[in-house]
Amino acid sequence: MRKGSTVLPSTERTRSRRAPQRPGDRVFSGLSTGAGVLILVVLAGVAAFLVAEAWPALIAPADEVPGPDGIVLYIWPLLFGTLLAAFLALLIAAPLAVAIALFITHYAPRRIAQALGYIIDLLAAIPSIIYGLWGIQVLAPLTVEPAGWLEENLGFIPLFAGPASTTGRTMLVAALVLAVMILPIVSAVVREAFRQTPRLHEEASLALGATRWEMIRMAVLPFGRSSIIGASMLGLGRALGETMAVAIVLSVSGGVTFNLISSGNPGTIAANIALEFPESTGIAVNTLIASGLVLFAVTLLVNMAARAVINRRREFSGAN
Question: Which part of the chain is the ABC transmembrane type-1 domain (predicted)?
């Protein structure tokens, strides 16, 4: 070192060695930043629109709002039906999606795994109205006889209290249709998480004498736990906003009930908006928008929770 020379800190030496930023880098950085800001602006604009349009219904007297008991009791059964259908769909789809992801990544031969992965991903490309038609024409008639059996043998459980529907247009069928719709979303995320499991973790488990299932239980599932939770919540957000499939399948009578096999079912917010909006005017439109605001808030909270769970996942490597 020469006398009188200045020793730069390591961070400053690193910065001094960096190449100058190219014009293309600056353009790409600006476009990326603008895209992120644009998303926030659009989201804020949607929220502002919903609040502004829902405000007349929120402050209107109860006798002016559709329904006999005011806006809260008008939205509550719809919110209950939305949450019930979505959580039932998640309860069905999440374990099946994890099982499919495990089979594709750790059990199936390569060719079968690729073909099955394509088929599962293809489910996401089918329009929701096709799912609704499949549910009402195929799935609903197939559930009539099992629903009668559930009423006879498990009728003491509120979920199967009956009377069983003779058409199959029940909350159970709606939940099954939603489960098939969110299956590719959950399966795709979980499958990628399982593929990123450090190879050294798997080999170490097998080298210690673990069976394949024990290796999956001790290495793969712990690594992908947060991804499973995040994927499930993303699927839940998808199920909460589904419209046409539920509107086609579900026979709505209003009210709040846990009965899954009867014709008397609570509606969902999205399906109710789709069915009622074309013929609504005045304060009825504001009421439907107010219910949409509730759905917007619930979906936003679900997706924010999913992002928070994913961000908390620690990064694993083969060395730790």
Answer: 79-306
